[in-house]
TrEMBL record:
Flagellin N-terminal domain boundaries: 3-140
GO molecular function, one term: structural molecule activity
Keywords, comma-separated and alphabetical: Bacterial flagellum, Cell projection, Cilium, Flagellum, Secreted
Gene Ontology biological process terms in this record: bacterial-type flagellum-dependent cell motility
Family stated for the protein in its record: Belongs to the bacterial flagellin family.
Name of protein: Flagellar hook-associated protein 3
Record-annotated Flagellin C-terminal domain positions: 323-401
Principal subcellular localization: other
Subcellular location: Bacterial flagellum; Secreted
One GO term describing the cellular component: bacterial-type flagellum hook
Superkingdom per UniProt: Bacteria
């Protein structure tokens, strides 16, 4: 087959150019460290790299969210720890106030310290984060969670927020609340349950002697819909030795007129004759936050006229309110700890996934230096051979053989 000079030149030039292109691409790979320079180098691989990069960017955002979440929860936990310390100190003071030998000056001093603790807890309930947002206000975070109304005659510390919780995405399948509403932490705290004598033909007085037993009875029998179902009647028998109540158990207790007896945690003192009755009604449950509880007991202790049974009732109310408030705070702290544990676990999982994705992406797009250097050496040799061959071919002439 006859080959023209043009064909010889074209083939030689193309050989040199192809080797130069290959050498240039390998040099670029070595200089950038990337095997994929353009998507056309490996369309499937480029698509995989793009997907893995997007996943890595998402993991980075998840980890930022995780840090934000843990910082928020740690701040809330620290605030509630301070609330707990203050409330425990208040509880000690309330117990101390029940000492029968306290003078009016002693009571006033205790009341003054309780007022300081009340103000401290009120400030903690209105804590703000680094951005000035009120932590316990729910979705109303631009305004204080709690407001003080000095003109109110009853509850002077009012919740102004809502039940909203901001949830943060930690992974594709995990979201965690980064705070708690003050309604749940502070406001939904049951005050001391109680009851009152409301009728009957006998003369009677009652007090709560066993709060736990009475609480169980109240919670099991209180009817929020039909008020009449909250009134119970005790009837003295014909012999005047027993009294039977119309509670679900039809409880009967021994009875002596004028002597105290206990029914469902309530201590009754009833003076009456056979067939006389006594009626008592379960009081409607109330909810009071810690600031309200401390406000009420400090005002009671500041009033020298509050003595005897009235003082004991106020002290009992305060102790139950503080205990229930502390329990709510403790439950929230436990919840925070659980959420932090979840965040830490997800963070570790995200780190493992990040490492795996980076390794997978590297396998696709990063250059193997040993392999690339070897290829570069081969391409340099091929280029040199092509150049030398081109030189020899272009110098060929029939005159060389004459």
């Amino acid at each position: 087959m006859r080959i023209s000079n043009n064909q010889i030149f074209d083939r030689a030039i193309n050989g040199v150019i192809d080797n130069q292109i290959g050498l240039s691409e390998t040099q670029l790979q070595l200089s950038t460290g990337k095997k994929l320079i353009t998507p056309s180098d490996d369309p499937v691989g480029a698509a995989s790299v793009l997907r893995l990069t997007e996943e890595l960017d998402q993991i980075t955002q998840y980890n930022r969210n995780n840090t934000l979440l843990q910082n928020s929860l740690s701040q809330e936990e620290a605030i509630l720890s301070n609330v707990t310390s203050s409330a425990n100190r208040a509880r000690v003071l309330v117990v101390q106030a029940g000492n029968g030998i306290n003078t009016d000056e002693d009571r006033a001093a205790i009341a003054s310290e309780l007022e300081q603790i009340r103000d401290e807890i009120f400030d903690l309930m209105n804590s703000q984060d680094a951005n000035g947002k009120y932590i316990f206000a729910g979705n109303q975070a631009d305004s204080p969670a709690f407001d003080f109304d000095a003109t109110a005659t009853g509850n002077r510390y009012l919740f102004q927020g809502d039940d909203g919780q901001n949830k943060i995405q930690l992974s594709s399948n995990v979201t965690v609340a980064n705070g708690d509403s003050g309604r749940e932490v502070f406001e939904n705290v049951l005050a001391r349950l109680s009851g009152t004598v409301t009728g009957g033909t006998a003369t009677a007085s009652i007090s709560i002697a066993q709060q736990g037993a009475f609480d169980s009875f109240h919670k099991a029998n209180y009817d929020a819909v039909t008020a009449a179902n909250n009134t119970f009647t005790g009837t003295i028998n014909g012999a005047g030795t027993q009294i039977t109540f119309n509670d679900p158990d039809n409880t009967t207790v021994n009875f002596t007129s004028g002597e105290p007896f206990t029914f469902k945690g309530i201590e009754f003192t009833v003076t009456g004759a056979p067939t006389n009755t006594v009626e008592f009604t379960l009081s409607q449950p109330e909810k009071k936050n810690l600031a309200v509880t401390l406000d009420e007991i400090s005002r009671a202790l500041s009033d020298p006229t509050v003595t005897g049974d009235a003082l004991q009732e106020a002290l009992s109310d305060a102790l139950v309110g503080l205990d229930n408030g502390l329990k709510k705070v403790s439950n929230t702290v436990s919840s925070i700890g659980g959420r932090i544990n979840i965040a830490e676990s997800v963070y570790e999982s995200n780190l493992d996934l990040e490492i795996a994705n980076k390794d997978a992406r590297s396998q696709i797009e990063d250059v193997d230096y040993a392999e690339a250097i070897s290829e570069l050496s081969k391409q340099e040799t091929a280029l040199q051979a092509a150049q030398q061959t081109f030189g020899r071919v272009t110098n060929l002439s029939l005159f060389d053989y004459i």
